[in-house]
């Protein structure tokens, strides 16, 4: 094992490898290394390594060898690397080199016997559509290996990424990592035949290469509520894999499969804290359908940046809600399944983890188009169909409903009743009792089915099912007055008419909706209005100097100004989001705005009273910004009165543990208590606190204020969150803004510069008419003016006074005159 002097943490290794560590690591008899290992293995390790002292840390993971920065003289045995041929040429190569004692040959020989590659660690990515295979592998190596994000289309081919990375660990100079990304399964648009063809192509790919992948990462969304059952898509995928991939890809004798449950942070809080029941369920399903017991099941979060997950002190891993370290948990599972079977795959991945974070290695890409493989395709299609009969109760209902459609409505349907019934059966819907009952399940159903207009009509006539249409004001496209931190009633961009969105509910056609199961807790405490404005500007992501004096923010929930007294009022807001809403760039500009802008002057003149009034009227109506992003969900608003200003910040500030820390402050650290022995008055009433709940079921919401301990409140909060889909509201404290001037620039660019100058004056409280001194008309006037004479002012010139603008002819001795900033 070679220690790279540029890398502090070297390579986690399995416990069984400790015996060979001495042969590959040369150290002095001083404390040069740190061992992260189970404490019970301490004595064994001491004897094998032969060093007198070292630092031992408790861990439930694999052993970890760490180079200390204080001892640069630490060296390792120089291992000679050798070029290892591919599997088909390896037998003759091994006969010539086996006696050489070179490590690379021995590693390759063991991997060859296990049916793996002799010089490559191959990672095959499988998963249901939307599970996040690509995010998972990128997070594993903290490097974009497979492209993700907006503008990246979902792959319809098998795409192979190859990273050339010589491995000192394995002793192989031509070592590689291959990441094979595949199309997602269960995409109803592509159909079952395509899924079957993908599996057949994967099988053929590895059959030609004559080895099985080192690792198969199967990504599953942890929030999929229908994992189990004969007709569940996940079960169908497993049974298809058993029939199609068991010979050339899956390995039952030396399992190479790891299940990754993705999107953990989008799960309900209870599941986030303890995903073990879901892990055990998945293990059971895999065992029943693949015959592989105790398959490793790990949890992951795809969008680590969006959820702002904290990191470990060393910054190496993200801390998941269940306190596991990601991607260390996935990495360790991969290490464990390969360490005794596939030394090539094990050592290369072991070494890749730190190396890919520190260095750039060339990555090549090869696409394998999906082609027909007749024999395998037929077998896979049979198992994917699972011999499902279209003669189901729902199939009969669809036939009746279809007969009631007009010819024009039938022409809108892309599926006839037989095909539609088959699709529903595959997804687990065969009888009326299988149909969704709650609004949340109805939305999930329409999201899964993705019907066209004709199918919408067919579903309504056959089952009485309709996608929900949320009538709540979505705020999208509305004008926003930044100086007052509030929306106005006017519209900048028109969202359009409602159509069925891909999220399973009706949305305006110019709004992009996406599922966003996340939470946000806001409890900001300031000591001055300016400090509060800074906090709010940061929340709105507005880059602006906070010395502006034209801002007059009203009291906003989640923002409190504390004084030193005990009469402070604290507010905090907990938001549960379910949908993110964004306005499209091609949304039509409202006719109201167009008309208003057409009447604006192309210049801004603060010395022209009519000009200034035009700009003031415009900003009072349309503000300076508009809302381009908002969220649907529910919120819980806490309001606590009579808070001691000296204690409030340290007790309740949102940086002190979010909602959990806040609740701890309310309940005095009592997480559990016997409610039967508690006072009849809840902790909230005893703390002079009121709770206001928006969205969801009102009966569930009313129970929150009656909680007597933190666990009771958390359980009730989870129950309320499950009802938010029934009655969602806009969580208006979380919006994103864009400038109105950017919209105006699209149709009247000539006014934009004047608008920006007037906006700056608005921010600085200077958007007021300012009198202009009359120019002297003759030499006498000029001379008189130099002497302090005021004959250059006209009788009608307006002068600013505390009681307003007054013509000069009415100014009297002793009157106070103020400048443009209101100063005497």
Automatic annotation (TrEMBL):
Biased composition (Basic and acidic residues): 774-786
GO MF annotations in UniProt: GTP binding
Signal sequence interval, chain numbering: none
Keywords, alphabetical: GTP-binding, Nucleotide-binding
Keyword Coiled coil applies: no
Residue ranges of coiled coil: none
Domain of life: Eukaryota
UniProt keyword GTP-binding present: yes
Disordered, as annotated region: 774-798
Family: Belongs to the TRAFAC class TrmE-Era-EngA-EngB-Septin-like GTPase superfamily. Septin GTPase family.
Protein name: MACPF domain-containing protein
Originating organism: Allacma fusca
